[in-house]
Amino acid sequence: MSRVRKTVGLFRPLRFDHLDLTAKLLVKYSIPDTFEILDDVLAKEFKGKKGR
């Protein structure tokens, strides 16, 4: 079963905590894994069709 992946596009600047999370993830995980984790985190934080 293949998983459908949604792309999250942001129309607002990333906050410092987003950048800090990215740096911490990159130390532990590969770039593709980091992107996947960030996609999940940001999709939960910026719900809905507007303001992403």
Describe the structure.
There is one protein chain. The chain has 52 residues and is an all-alpha fold. It has two helices and no strands. It has helices spanning 16-28, 31-45. Helix 1 (16-28) runs antiparallel to helix 2. 0% of the residues are buried. The mean pLDDT is 78.
Low-pLDDT sequence parts: none
Helical segment tally? 2
Mean pLDDT: 78
Structural class: mainly alpha
Helix and strand topology:
Layout lengths: L15 H13 L2 H15 L7
List the keywords.
52 residues, mainly alpha, single chain, 2 helices
Tell me briefly what this model is.
With 52 residues, the chain is mainly alpha-helical. Helix content is 54%, strand content 0%.
